[in-house]
Amino acid sequence: xxxxxxxxxxxxxxxxxxxxxxxxxxxxxxxxxxxxxxxxxxxxxxxxxxxxxxxxxxxxxxxxxxxxxxxxxxxxxxxxxxxxxxxxxxxxxxxxxxxxxxxxxxxxxxxxxxxxxxxxxxxxxxxxxxxxxxxxxxxxxxxxxxxxxxxxxxxxxxxxxxxxxxxxxxxxxxxxxxxxxxxxxxxxxxxxxxxxxxxxxxxxxxxxxx
Length: 210
Known about the structure:
7-stranded mixed β-sheet; single chain; globular; Nucleotidyltransferase, domain 5; 34% helix; alpha/beta
């Protein structure tokens, strides 16, 4: 069993972090760019789930993010966003400036993955790092890498980019999701964010190395 993690960029010109993680928490990372490249790489590894750092749903009442659409009165926050706020976790609303392009790309990629027979879930690596007691990337990439290693992630070479390390965190949450050891924030009819269980600070089950 393996999962894929994507730290998705808002536009194809920027790097998207990509991680494949197996059930023993061994990670392999790279960076990708175009939607076609992402789809090809993800489909090739046949993951149990694709955990994506990007909004994969819109606030209730919205059909799009255009300012000239009547749906703009649907609001700026989803119930999952409000749940993050109650947990004291910082985030950017889907309607905020550059988040619009990321949201539109996330929705498009989710549809492409579904057509390929793959399940995609929304995750938030910064929030997951908060729950797991890990430093966020702005606290230092080496500190984040060591923190991930400290909870059992293997195969992380030095010098990984911030995009790759966030993709590793996405994949880590994907493993928790595959093991049914996660918390789903939000309204299923609107959209969910998958997070580690805050009550236990749950990390994936440790497995003996072969």
